[in-house]
Specification:
With 498 residues, this protein is an all-alpha fold. The protein has helices at residues 2-18, 26-54, 61-67, 69-83, 92-95, 101-113, 122-132, 134-169, 175-189, 195-209, 212-241, 264-278, 281-303, 309-328, 339-342, 348-363, 365-376, 382-400, 403-406, 426-449, 452-468, 470-483, 485-494. It contains 23 helices and no strands. Helix 14 (309-328) packs parallel to helix 18.
Length: 498
């Protein structure tokens, strides 16, 4: 099994080197590694500061930290959606070889457990443990404490993988983690003295003291989650490889979207765009995810007092930008499945880019409408919502549409588990991160120098400038795409999954 594991790792590295995006992502990978080191430094700093801040109280600092394990795991669970990919492997070539399909699934789960992200929290807990645990339990206490933290993150990894896999099938499975964490929140805060805090403290104490039963219990829980993941992935892999179609859905009347006829050639490509996102598994899943996230955060902003100040502005912006990033980070990658047909007509790519710009600008009306209850309850201002409604299709879309030139890897429209390894996406992640954090930084700078009304008006002015010149920069993107069309088309063809 070890030999097969190393062989699959070698295949993944070769696939990454042969990816059409490999050369263009070297610079992006450098910045991704730089940001990883930056956040590691932050975690070390916070772990050290928490140790000093909690020292001197009636309770030992590590007891206070251990009582909060549940909150750390919730934060870790949410961050995994942004920073961790599901383990995938193109299995079709291996089916023809004398390799068990179940063995491949086991190796995928093992690779998920060996993911370096599961170690990231140690940069927080190890400095904290050195400053607080060593005085009573020595270095060995820190070692066993760190091992226990790693097992917690491993447990969270496989729990996240179950939720992520189910949500890839049906977005309504989002209610599973939401329901679990809602029940945990009620169990933590409704009773005056919640037993969960005591249980969490005892768990951390067991890690520090190296109790065998504590570690055996954690390993047993991890094994149970691994087995659930195994059964789930077996079913999903079989369905995708066998091309099993869902027979429960009735085929209704096929809409031709005749409304777009009035817009001429642009309308034809808007119709193509709508059919692309409404008739394929991966794109429909993305739409459902956007709707679910926007509804969730809109409700939290409207009827909760949790988010105030900068966090409030952060989630208002997130409501708008999640639509842009989810819809446009794979720009032209889905079209890679039929790029040859698009290239057969003069300037069809330019018309397609304009159609995408108009369609995804209209999509922003959804988070705007969902934000109105927060306006009516006085949590946010209408001017702030209007500012982001205009700013996002301006500078943010300008940044994201640059990916039309850079993307040259085809994304499969239906395969999820058996899709090719998602390699060569560092540049996409970098631009997507810039499209999210740069507007937030601009907003914070403006509110630091001006009042909220003036800052919103400046954002509106910036957005209107980019919207008014959209035909110019879309034309520039089209011309740059055509200059490297043969290189991009070769990459699209090579990365198609047969």
């Amino acid at each position: 099994m070890f030999a097969l594991y190393t062989e699959l790792r070698r295949h993944n590295k070769l696939a990454e080197q042969r990816s059409p995006m490999f050369d263009s992502n070297r610079f992006a990978k450098f910045w991704m590694y730089f940001m990883a080191l930056f956040w590691i430094g932050y975690l070390i700093f916070f772990g050290t500061m928490f140790a000093f801040a909690m020292d001197g109280g009636s309770t030992e600092p590590y007891h206070v930290m251990n009582a909060g394990f549940i909150f750390v795991m919730v934060i870790d669970f949410m961050l995994r959606f942004a920073f961790q990919k599901t383990p995938t492997q193109e299995m079709k070539p291996y089916i023809l070889l004398p390799v068990r399909k179940n063995r491949l699934i086991d190796l995928l789960l093992l690779r998920s457990g060996m993911n370096g992200y599961n170690l990231i929290w140690l940069f927080f807990f190890v400095p904290f443990g050195i400053l607080t645990v060593t005085r009573f339990y020595g270095v060995w206490g820190v070692v066993t404490y760190s091992a226990g933290i790693w097992l917690l993150m491993l447990f969270n990894n496989y729990w996240w993988l179950i939720c992520r896999s189910l949500m890839s099938e049906r977005v309504w499975w989002l209610l599973l983690p939401v329901g679990v964490y809602a029940l945990l929140g009620c169990a933590l805060f409704i009773p005056e003295e919640s037993p969960l805090f005591d249980w969490s403290t005892d768990l951390g104490e067991g890690f520090i003291q190296g109790h065998g039963l504590t570690f055996i219990g954690m390993l047993a829980a991890i094994i149970v989650l691994v087995l659930i993941n195994r059964l789930l992935m077996q079913r999903m892999v079989y369905a995708e490889i066998s091309k099993v179609e869902e027979t429960t859905e009735k085929v209704g009347k096929v809409s031709e979207y005749r409304f777009f006829d009035r817009f001429g050639e642009i309308g034809e490509y808007m119709r193509l765009e709508l059919k692309l996102y409404m008739r394929n598994k991966m794109t429909k899943k993305m739409i459902y995810m956007i709707v679910a996230v926007v509804l969730l955060f809109s409700l939290m902003l409207s009827f909760s007092d949790t988010y105030t100040g900068r966090m409030r502005e952060f989630f208002i912006l997130y409501n708008f930008i999640i639509c842009a990033i989810q819809g446009l980070s794979g720009l032209m990658a889905y079209e890679g499945n039929y790029i040859d047909g698009l290239m057969s007509r003069k300037e069809s790519i330019y018309a397609l880019l304009r159609a995408k710009y108009y369609m995804w600008s209209v999509v922003l009306l959804f988070p705007f409408v969902m934000s109105l209850p927060a306006v009516f309850t006085g949590k946010i201002t209408l001017l702030s919502c209007v500012a982001w409604l205009i700013f996002v299709p301006g500078p943010v879309y300008f940044m994201l549409f640059q990916l039309a030139v850079l993307n040259k890897k085809t994304l499969n429209l239906n395969a999820k588990i058996t899709n090719r390894q998602n390699v060569g996406t560092g540049l996409q992640n970098l631009i997507a991160a810039g499209a999210f954090f740069v507007p937030f930084l601009i907003s914070q700078l403006l509110t630091g120098f001006f009042d909220e009304t003036t800052a919103s008006l400046i954002l509106i002015a910036m957005g209107l400038l980019f919207i008014a010149t959209s035909n110019l920069w879309l034309r520039n993107i089209y011309q740059r795409f055509m200059k490297r069309r043969y290189e991009n088309m070769e990459g699209f063809r090579d990365s198609r999954q047969k």
